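Hi W.,

Here's what went into the run:
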Amino acid sequence: MVCTASDLHGWKDFPKGLRVLLLDGDSNSAAEIKTKLEEMEYVVVTYCNENDALLAISSEPEMFHVAIVEVTASDHDGTFKFLEAVKDLPTIMISNIHCLSTMMKCIELGAIEFLQKPVSEDKLRNIWQHVVHKAFNAGGNAVPSSLKPIKESVASILHLELENNENKNQVPHELEISSCDNVDDHELLLLPEGSDKYPAPSTPQQKHGMRLVDQMNDLLEKECGEQDGEESKSVETTCTAQVENSQLSDKEVIKEEENSTDGCGAASNVDHELHDRDNISSSEKNKSKACGLGNPCRTKVSGKKLKVDWTPELHRKFVQAVEQLGVNQAIPSRILELMKVEGLTRHNVASHLQKYRMHKRHILPKEEDGSWSSSKDPMRKNYYPHPQRPVMAYPPPYHSNHVMPVAPIGSWGHMACPSPGVQMWAPPPSYPPWRPPETWPWKSYLGVHGEAWGCPVTPPPPHSPFSSNPHHIAIFEYVDVHDKSYGIAPSPVDLQLADEEIDKVVKEAISKPWLPLPLGLKPPSTESVLSELSRQQISTTPFHINGSKLLH
DNA sequence: AGTTAAATAT
DNA sequence: TATATTTAAC
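Here's what came out:
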């Protein structure tokens, strides 16, 4: 029997070990096919006689996972004894002769596929797809016992993919946290960039099983990466909401990092042809696959890296991490640790951090900002969507409740607010109207997305050990240059320039607390600070975080 | 390792 | 063309 627990467990390298019944009256042909199958590490038992084959099956029903039957070995005047007798076993018919009616007859009788000889290696290699397909799609619950182990194995593999990824032996485990822990986490999305999600299987007939099959294929073929030792890659997915529309969304992906060392080899090319027709055209990078399967698939393949899709969730984690660490300590490695997203690399974080910082500074690549004049893009829309720019973390006393949302874009506000436990002024529950929903603002243009960058991370988790960190953040009170009340948003245009200036100044002040405050900024009164701390039930004050002193 | 700029991919 | 990410460089 195939179905022992050990089988399931040990069958990590599925489909290797798949047991194939080969029935072909032509011994030469049989030998040839058998050889090919064995090269793929399938276990083949050849029968030249149909009765022997049927006998073997009847005596040990679970002996085989799939059968390959040469038509003439089974055809008795139009009746296919084997097919009629063996309904549970996925059977692939093969023939030298191309006879449509025979093909149809076989399919009608349950053959899962009809192939013309000589059977290509690719076809043979992919016979497992039928097995998996049948295991998952057998009508009703009637899954042949011989396929149960496969089903479980596949399920197990797919599942593993999501949960464990430790990959290599030496990978540090710092990040073991599974991304799935949180309900809503969908972390990285792997996007197969191509558009197609699930390429068609080798066989046309299947419909539903495809996705699964393809996934398997992907898993098997590609693999995971490797990375420098820092992290592992894989990712996962859990997708959620978006899943519905696109198929792709489910998988998340990530790619890896550069130095991969493993050599994974070459096994991968196998199926490309089957699937990626679309992808192929573009660079190979597109073929991202999910690598999360640490185990099964270690074979690495081409080491292309998948692009990390900074989904809102992922970004949220990122921002939260940054906030917890505080500006000065928000470095890639630490952020990465806090994020606990598997598969994400330090480089990925660094890159995102770079972008994040730029946004915070309102430095869009093109913008001309004194120090950042990279004048690539001379004109930028001068319209800044964000409302006002409260640049202070501490809200003016008079607005203590009114939570003023921090300026979306590069504002610093987010730093203060989101931190867990320390929800400063930003009122978590309801954001002001202008605040873009959780959508993906930043995927759009300028102002729009920008908001996602600066906006507070949503829900401050209960209490985080770092909750106190944020304090050192902006405690300055901004003397509104526009001379308007905080609650009133001046026209965007008016603010733009000033805002950028302000952000810059504030940033400077925060990062260099030892320097005198620039004009326009005034420190909050001790009273207001204490009051705020008190309100937040913070009794102790860090004297220095990053070397900066808050108050004492 | 962290930043930042340049290169690429979409 | 602009943007989002990755790579390369420092």
